[in-house]
Design goal:
homotrimer; 635 residues; alpha/beta; TIM Barrel; Rossmann fold; Immunoglobulin-like; 3 domains; 11-stranded mixed sheet; 5-stranded antiparallel sheet; 30% helix
Chain lengths: 635, 635, 635
């Protein structure tokens, strides 16, 4: 570890069975030795609470602690995460363990932070057992207070679903056909909340017994089951697990970029940490291609550039047994005479030179509105098109901005938009009154706003907002959409936008103008001649899914109107990001291309990795990076 | 509703929970008000018995009332139709409700008819619980009387399945491999019968308590689980739910046509009703494209032309909550300032002019033999080719007749064929002795008969008829098929028919002539030179699946031999249908094309929609219709 | 049967319910009559123990005797093989039946052999019920003696899986994610062993009560769930069920060839029997194409050529009821006026002339190392590529040898390799120390050895052999593979081998030479310029999956180095195999082509089927065969 300049390691994530081999009998000796050894070598510990995988004895003594899937199949020990989040035996056993750990190690000189549980909800995001049903009912009572309110919110007049007693309510278990969508939406909320309840249960113990030590858990990018806006309030900083597929490096780089933007945005721009990434290949896809030379370094710098203050890996050493033995480790099966180890050591050596970057921040003029509740609702079945999914639309909008080096934040629909010039809202199917008002305030303040199709359709109960889509935004946008026109399979249509013809797919809206102007017009099909994209002052609406070239054209218009400029005018494939703070400014340049790239830079700067000073032009090797500190401010 | 000339509405289909919010406590006030309001406005009610979706309290008090799927998974409340059809609690509760409804509303001035339950079997066509097993055994005892008879019928000598006690018999639950096919076939029969038993249970109550009011339920085209030949005996008229996919209008029009022909045929040609169709899009396909302008009207007239006396919709108003909120309504979310509403109003206005059509009938010279029992048997596994399915074959034969405007009826295999000139029998895999004799009588009476491959294979027990396929028709056809030659995946072969070469796919028969002549011959593969289509007087056999052009050629020959003429020689894409009665004759012309069509018509007629008189030629707009009443009979 | 020269028939396989219609009451009269009738006509019986399908009464009286699948779904009666292999009621009932049969028929003059059960594991290769769990634990106790040993072997330190009590262990039931792979591997071993335990249970009874009568059961080619190396020790001779798909005759012929080689090799080269093959089509594929004229005869001779001494069929007569009624029989539904029956009679007549072949043997210079344990481990999930499967790799290596008429044996990794010149080891992922030493001995003795990628990776516990792949063979091969580079979907790369360029797919290795030379080199991608195939003296390594042309080239080099010659230089599509014994030598020539083939043969020989003597050239009809006995030895 010292050879690789490692200074922080996660310890004990799946060690419950070794720490407590039988109920109430603890074996801490081995962990004492590990932590002492780390401390003796100047390495800190991200100490895990080890509650993510209960020991086999818990399931044997408390079979009800095992989770049950939607079809009623019990999930057994033999893997990990085999617990019902609502189960009382699990909670009691986990609490006892955390109490022991916190008491024993709160003052250990290696302890840098607490790592609570692990990847909450990764395999078991929901349990459908009877105890979970009971817990769901309690949660619903607390949300709705009265059955009448629940019946109204769930629209139980439809299909004879009116409840006369709380005990009649069950989770959305298998049913003859589609379950009540409001029930499903509340189930999503409940499942995120019940996992968060587990986190808070441990956090409160740790705060009490190990006061002052930072506490976090590892998020998983845009993980659907957990509403990280709510979660982020309870972690001291965000930490992310980052596993884009190296077989498609371009997509992977974009996914890594947007994940960083989310992690940063979840805590209002504060630095975050890469908690896990693979040194090389993973083992859980159908085909697991390696990270080619340079790719791991490039990705690490990309996270750093976009606001991370720490770069960690899963895992230190590739294990020789178990279900993850073909997941790469910093120390591979072959040992240290390997490319992987060399790259790890080089990265560690370089990172030691970048201490000045720590604590600096990234700023953005563009915001994406992103909401878990709307996503859950959008992706429930019985919709006009089941092929409209949120992450697809977010990625479709994110790409043209990322490729132009325009930095973006993510914002909750009810979050503060006042610092942005351009707000992009892809498919905000569900919108609260407060969120609609929030957007209206932004636009009335002069901001440029763009909304994509199938937005503003329902409220937080999944009730359609009547009177013409997208009801809460109609006046702002100066349009009405009386009919939704999803495309059939593989059905392409075309629009004319700015003199050019572009394809569009997936969805079209029948738009009637009520004050707006048509920026683009459908050219074929039954909607031919009708508007496809509209503008009402600074409020834009996009009633279809344009192809990539169309998106580039459209985004260009939006940036022009909002006056947003890129971080740097760099060649295609070169990502440029700036971090600032304490009067210092750092420019990260990342060459995602397989060819050398030459970047023009105006002003004086110091190259932190080579320690050289340069001016005017910089050449970056394929998959290479540069970190420059401005002497005079670069433009 | 008055604006749209609505005169009949279905009320209360999923209202059980509102009518009986707790067991035995009824709330009829709201329904009284609805029915009074309708009556006050001259609108009649198709009053539902509301038994299709039990209230949540039934499941909580009687968990056994919930259905269980084949894998043993219980289906929970939260959707609809969550009841085991054999369950006694459900039956008792449903009976009590219907008794209340019938007693209260039997004399209401709005009451036009009773709508029993809803779409029987739509989601739960079979329940595999222990009570259903018991019920199945009782049904089997009644069918077979002795275990020895059952053992013989099921061929239990095979695979050591001989039963020694009735209680050893279970439904076809999951098994290590294919279940006994005779058991599976009887299970299909039982499941259709047990649902019909529910209908009859309600019908008997209604007949007793609300004498003289017509009773029906909504069928679903060629719905596989229910043998509508048996069901039709118990409804006062047939009513259908019609949801062809608007994304493929040509296929949809054909499906709508054949569904109409079935509904008419089920009650011997009597008028029927469209009980449900969508005013615009549905919400339950992967991608739900709208009905383009004119398509809903065109489809409505098509049903009318083919014998319907009523056109109804699901649903009046698009709901704002629940699992069907994106199913179109006559009143959309956007309200009445919409194309949908305009089309609804126009249709209502027009239909008011067509009262004279009510009660008239459609007649056909061609019959398709269609049988649910044979379909169930054909589509069981462990067949020579699992890709031979009945509806595919029926559609393949139906298309060339429909495109030529040759009207067809559907007939049960043992039904009266005497009024037809041509009888088409696609894939009648299972055939009873009586059905075989029925066909022989038809042919000996001079009728033209055509049988397609893999027919006449088994009897009603699913026992192969030995001695050479198709055993009961061999003599009639003058052939024997010693071997079946299903094609491999994507394997095309070719035949020569009438001097032309046509492709054939899916299946070929090795045919030996025993008196017949070869009308078409295989041109390639191992069967090269052998007969593909044969004729023995007026009895034809088609030993393969010809391509569309081949079917056109073949059907032309069959029509020529049988002397059947089309309703009208119309341009391609124009459907022409005649309804007659009481000395009046109506000609419906439906333009399915996207271009104007000009139809030559001989004779005087009156155009009922425009009220104009015309002669010789009529031009119909794209997707337009005309309804003509003959002054002199058109030819 | 006499018309078809049948001299051995399998009797009673699924007759338990008829033999014992209620517990303890036996009805043997019908079987007495069948066996007497056979004996009276000079036909012997392969008498089945009838235990493969329990009667319905067993399940009703002992519901726990029904098997349970991985998801916990009970498998019910109605098909066959519905028993838990560990269930005591089943075992007791089966034992009682076998005791009755053996006692009654041990001395019957028709009895030639015992057919135990049927196709063990065909539908139910594993049961996950509680009794099976208990049995699994007993098996594990016996394998590991201590929990500490099991914990070490299963690597339970990973993911908190350490067991503190034997009773905590369950079968690999559904779990939140991948189950422990060592647990899964032991489960495969257990499931094979528990089925074998059933066979041995019956065998011991038969040996005691019916001493001297040969005992076997029907294997199913390379059936994954059963380790036939272990099973073969317990059968008196191997018997195989052979059902390659006739829709792809070329693949089918190769599969039939390799199955024969396996059956022969399982008992050290001793003759074996075709226990089942279809006279014509089967009924259990999606589309079941017939065997075209000549194909059944050709396949039968192919088995004979490759060492079979008996050719049997499933089934005698096509049944008229049940789940296999469309499986062809020697007597079809149509009867004996059929091609199928004519071909059966012709084959029977011919085989009567080949008595001299019985007992002769096939010999090979090339061995394929094949191991069930390695296959089980390889095909568990969480691997670098889930698309690497063993049979695909075996077939890929087998084809070029089979096409060149080079005979091969299969050998267990620890089996005797001393008689071979060339040993081919495709994907031996799991390798024991003993196996590695076995190979090393072979190479040090001068043998040519070739190993393909992803071999030698783990030991018998599924623990990675550390220090660089393929650890136990590194020294032998003179290479190290520090990284595995599975390809992405559809990713083709290329190699240069012997001056030509070939595609490769699926997988590449990053190979470092440590003494070996590069025989082929990657030409593109990140591994460009690195070795793809290496040679270290007579030890070869192939680090990718070459295309077919590349395999032909490579196999040519291997045969050249090892000095292995084909049986005969025959035209493409003509298979040539020799059987020798007692100083006589038989040459089988099989024309798999649709055209006549002319084979040059040197030396005098007698054609056993035509009884003619010929020299120099022989012309074989399409799909035809010749069996020649050498007068002078052919070369």
């Amino acid at each position: 570890m010292r050879e690789a300049s490692v200074n922080l390691v996660t310890v004990g994530v799946f060690s419950w069975a070794r720490l407590e081999p039988e109920p109430g009998r603890y074996e801490f000796g081995w962990l004492d030795r590990v932590l002492d050894l780390l401390a003796d070598n100047g390495i800190f510990a991200d100490l895990a609470t080890a509650t993510a995988s209960p020991p086999p004895w818990l399931a044997r003594r408390n079979p009800d602690s095992l989770p049950v899937d939607r079809e009623g199949v019990r999930l057994w020990p033999g893997a990990r995460q085999h617990y019902c989040p609502s189960n009382k035996s699990y909670r009691a056993a986990a609490t006892a363990l955390v109490e022991q750990l916190a008491t024993r190690y709160c003052d250990h000189r290696a302890l840098a932070m607490w790592h609570v549980n692990n990847e909450y909800g990764c395999h078991v995001a929901a349990c459908y057992c009877d105890r979970s049903a009971e817990h769901f009912r309690a949660w619903l009572r607390s949300r709705y207070a009265s059955l009448a309110a629940l019946n109204e919110a769930w629209g139980t007049a439809f299909w004879s679903q009116q409840y006369g007693d709380w005990d009649e309510i069950v989770p959305p278990r298998p049913a003859p056909t589609w379950r009540n969508p409001s029930q499903e939406l509340d189930w999503h909320r409940f499942c995120s909340d019940v996992l968060l309840e587990l986190f808070v249960m441990e956090r409160e113990l740790l705060e009490r017994l190990s006061s002052g030590v930072p506490i976090t858990t590892n998020f998983m990018r845009f993980f659907k089951p957990c509403d990280y806006w709510k979660w982020a309030e309870h972690v001291d900083f965000t930490a992310d697990d980052l596993y884009p597929d190296p077989s498609d490096a371009a997509t992977g780089a974009r996914e890594r970029a947007s994940a960083a933007d989310l992690m940063r945005s979840l805590k209002g721009g504060a630095p975050w940490a890469v908690m896990e990434q693979a040194p090389n290949a993973v083992n859980w896809r159908q085909r697991n291609v390696p990270k080619h030379p340079g790719l791991m370094r490039l990705g690490s710098y990309q996270s750093l550039a976009r606001g991370a203050d720490g770069i960690m890996f899963f895992q230190w050493r590739a294990s020789k047994a178990g279900a993850e033995k073909f997941h790469s480790g910093m120390v591979p099966h072959t040992g240290t005479a390997t490319r992987t180890w060399r790259e790890v050591v080089e990265l560690g050596t370089e990172l030691a030179r970048l201490d000045a970057v720590v604590g600096t921040r990234v700023s953005a003029d563009v915001a994406f509105v992103f909401d878990w509740e709307s996503r859950w609702a959008l992706e429930l079945p019985s919709k006009p098109s089941h092929d409209v999914t949120l992450m697809d639309q977010v990625a479709h909008w994110y790409r043209p901005l990322w490729e132009r080096n325009v930095m973006v934040d993510f914002v909750h629909p009810e979050g503060d938009l006042s610092s942005y010039r351009l707000v992009i809202v892809p498919n905000l199917y569900l919108v609260t009154d407060a969120a609609a008002a929030n957007v209206a305030r932004f636009v009335s303040g002069g901001g440029v706003f763009v909304l994509s199709f199938f937005s503003g359709i329902v409220d937080e109960r999944e009730h359609v907002r009547l009177g013409g889509y997208p009801a809460p935004f109609r006046e702002l946008l100066g349009i009405v959409v009386p009919e939704l026109w999803p495309h059939g399979d593989d059905e392409l249509r075309h629009v004319r936008l700015g003199g050019e013809r572009y394809a569009c797919e997936l969805w079209s809206d029948w738009i009637e103008l009520e004050g707006a102007e048509a920026v683009a017009t459908f050219e074929d099909g039954w909607l031919s001649g009708r508007p496809a994209v509209t503008r009402n002052g600074s409020a834009w609406y996009v009633g279809t899914r344009l192809d990539s070239a169309g998106m580039d054209e459209l985004v260009g218009k939006l940036l022009a109107q909002s006056g947003v400029a890129p971080t740097l005018a760099a060649p295609a494939g070169v990502e440029a990001v700036r971090r600032d703070g304490d009067g210092r400014s750092f420019l990260f340049l990342l060459n995602h291309g397989a060819q050398e790239a030459t970047v023009d830079i105006d002003g004086d700067y110091r190259d932190l990795l080579t320690d050289g000073e340069r001016a005017s032009q910089l050449t970056i090797e394929p998959f290479g990076v540069a970190v420059l500190e401005a002497m005079l401010r670069v433009r």
